Amino acid sequence: MNYDLSEFQYPSSDGKHTIHAELYTPKVGTPRAIVQLSHGMVDFVGRYRYLADALCGAGFVFAGNCHLGHGKSAGGDEDLGIFSEDGGIDFVLRDLHAMNKYLRAAYPNLPLVLLGHSMGSFIARVYTERYPHDISALIIHGTGGPNPALPLAKAIGATVEFFKGPRHRSALITNLAFGSYNKKFDKSEGPDAWLTRDTAVIKEYEEEKLSHFRFTVAGYRDLFRLVGLSNAKKWFNEFPKHLPTLIVSGTMDPVGAYGKGPAYVYKHLLLAGCNNVTLKLYDGARHELHNETNRDEVFRDIIEWVESAVL
């Protein structure tokens, strides 16, 4: 391993929970940059250790916090899959910002790159609009574009929440959100084949409790809102025009509509006048590039891009 790991906690902005955070520092040499993670849905920071190892090997600090309702930031099983019954997005953004401030204070002379994966990419995109001066570059990883089914999903979610409450866990909404993700993969690969081609990663994922819980209705409400906010015309128009931005995804990632979503984001950032945006699609790769069979290629590209963008 190329890193030393330290774990710590800090109070959530919701005034109720304690946020779990992890800091990976290079074992050798002086750090050159910071990469801050915004992780995905039903996910946690510890699932990014291949990425942490590669980045620390390149002399980067890698760090992230578990979002509310995820990993060790959830107070118990009942808190998994929910940011908050109300105001959840704001709490998540403020918790991410608290981590950002900690890292910038700890390494005041280093550039900070925000990397958001999947749900975390939508969080990172909204975060960049709110706190444009607090990052040096952005990596949008496993993201999606506008979803034509979003209005229907929001309406169904609102109806279920009205009758069942914000903490209800709906099989219907989960199926609407994810039911089609595995349809292009052989059934023999199992229900999580859309994540990665690496069968060892899939096996570990299937055995991890913190990767298997159903989102609450309130959690889906906030997720759908994040997708909408980060693909709205306002977001593209207000995106920092000169911010170095890398968009990476697999051509077999259903979250990105098999490359169409990331291409949409790239195109509309250019149309909005952004002049430092790069798109990289990996042929055959699925959703979790950091856990894919070609992850070493992805990591090399990310490291080279960070070096060219901020060093």
Tell me what the structure shows.
Helix 1 (49-57) crosses helix 10, helix 3 (119-130) crosses helix 7 and helix 4 (150-164) packs antiparallel against helix 7 (217-230). The protein contains ten helices and eight strands. Strand 3, helix 1 (49-57) and strand 4 (60-65) form a beta-alpha-beta unit. The longest helix has 19 residues, at 88-106. The protein has helices at residues 49-57, 88-106, 119-130, 150-164, 171-178, 199-206, 217-230, 233-238, 260-271, 295-310; strands at residues 3-11, 18-26, 33-38, 60-65, 112-117, 137-141, 245-250, 277-282. With 311 residues, the protein is α/β, with parallel strands linked by helices. The model has no long low-confidence stretch (mean pLDDT 97).
Main sheet summary: 8 strands, mixed
Termini separation: 24 Å
Question: CATH H level: which superfamily?
Answer: Alpha/Beta hydrolase fold, catalytic domain
Number of discrete domains = 1
**Annotated CATH topology:** Rossmann fold
Q: Outline, from the CA principal axes?
A: globular
Q: What would you call the structural class?
A: alpha/beta
Strand content: 15-25%
Q: Name the assembly state.
A: single chain
Q: Which CATH C-level class is it?
A: Alpha Beta
Could you say what the CATH architecture is?
A: 3-Layer(aba) Sandwich
Rg, nearest Å: 18 Å
Q: Helical segment tally?
A: 10
Along the chain, the helix and strand elements come as: EEEHEHEHEHHHHHEHEH
Show unreliable segments: none
| Count of DSSP strands | 8
What's the average pLDDT?
A: 97
Tell me the helix content: 25-40%
**Taking strands numbered 1, 2, ... along the chain, how are they ordered across the largest sheet?**
1-2-4-3-5-6-7-8
